[in-house]
Amino acid sequence: MRRFDPAEHSASDIYKLMIGMVVPRPIAFVSSLDEQGLRNLAPFSYFMACTADPPVVCFVSSFRKTEHPTKDTLRNIVATNEFVVNIVSEEFAYKMNLTAAEVAPEVDEFELSGLTPVASELVRPPRVGESHAQMECRLRQLLPIGDAPGGGTLIFGDVLRFHVDEEIIAGYKIDPDRLKAVGRMGGPTYVRTRDRFDMARP
User: Fold this and answer.
1) At 146, is the pLDDT very low, low, confident or very high (cuts 50, 70, 90)?
2) Which domains does the chain have, with CATH numbers?
3) What is the DSSP string of 90-158?
4) What is this structure's pTM?
5) CB–CB of 39/126 below 8 Å?
């Protein structure tokens, strides 16, 4: 068994270890607006549900080795306190991936990807019309972790409103065969959620 001391390896190598071990990762497809109302859409695979009462989700916006190390999404949320998390399904995974491109802040990723903006009810950022499940969120807390590439900011959001397609839900149970969510593995690899098994909780 090989051992790795993070202090003895580059951040990029540690990143490769982490995204290869922590799999599959769900994808937060986050829509936001800047102060002028310009739309932004970006995927984040450091994403999870935190609590149900109150309903809170979180994701990480990582620092980059670019002219603008902070992502547009984080800057928008800091400015407006609002965002939407859209769940990614197989049928529009390709279009989601287009929004991962490094583009100028003034580029509208809805137009870039061809995805459909749909008005939200309680926040200003639009939802992704192709998504079968969406969460309108208000910023609860920011937690910066490091200030160099490899670090990032943990963004917590209170879910103000859930939107779920009627075709994929019965009661409060979402049908995974109809949601067809995708997850992120290491590198360019994604995973479908079709192969599943059940275990009774002891």
Assistant:
1) confident
2) 6-192 (2.30.110.10)
3) GGGHHHHHHTTS---TT--HHHHHTPPEE--SSSSSPEETT-SEEEEEEEEEEEEE-SSBTBEEEEEEE
4) 0.95
5) yes
